[in-house]
Design brief:
The protein is mainly alpha-helical and about 150 residues long. The protein is about 75% helix and about 0% strand. The protein has one domain. The chain has four helices and no strands.
Length: about 150
């Protein structure tokens, strides 16, 4: 179970981004009576998604290396930039872009920036998911193994 945990967390992160961004929010705008009502609900869902993303990234960081080991697992070495990038994108979107959208400041610009940042976060989550799947069967790093360099 321990070796599958990163795969499950990465799947939760990517799957939740996919569900909220590509299914639930478009359905809100299609079925709620006004764009204002849909926008308010979407803002709440995106805020909740931020915390799901942060929790998933923190969990992945915490399990990125074995206890008492110096080296990270192979999946973590390959995915670290995407984990950190995705977490930073989630926080920057929530605290930098979302307030401007809610305040309706230059709505077209900030909505475009937010959409781009969400799409980049989705790509980061997909890359992490891919790396955890690809390295799922890799052995744990060993301190007794020689390192290159």
């Amino acid at each position: 179970m321990r070796d599958r945990f990163p795969v499950l967390v990465a799947a939760l992160w990517w799957g939740s981004l996919t569900t909220i961004g590509f299914l639930v929010v478009p359905l809100l705008f299609a079925h709620l009576p006004s764009p204002m009502v849909a926008g308010n609900m979407a803002a709440k869902l995106f805020a909740a998604q931020t915390w799901v993303s942060v929790a998933c990234c923190l969990a992945l960081l915490l399990v990125s290396r074995p206890k008492q080991a110096v080296a990270q697992y192979p999946w973590a070495q390959a995915a670290m930039v995407f984990i950190l990038g995705g977490m930073l994108l989630a926080l920057a979107t929530q605290f930098g872009v979302a307030p401007r959208i809610v305040a309706r400041q230059d709505l077209r610009l900030w909505h475009s920036v937010g959409t781009l940042m969400y799409a980049l976060q989705w790509c980061c989550a997909l890359a992490v998911f891919w790396h955890t799947l690809r390295h799922d069967s890799d052995p744990e790093p060993s301190e007794s193994q020689p390192t290159a360099g």
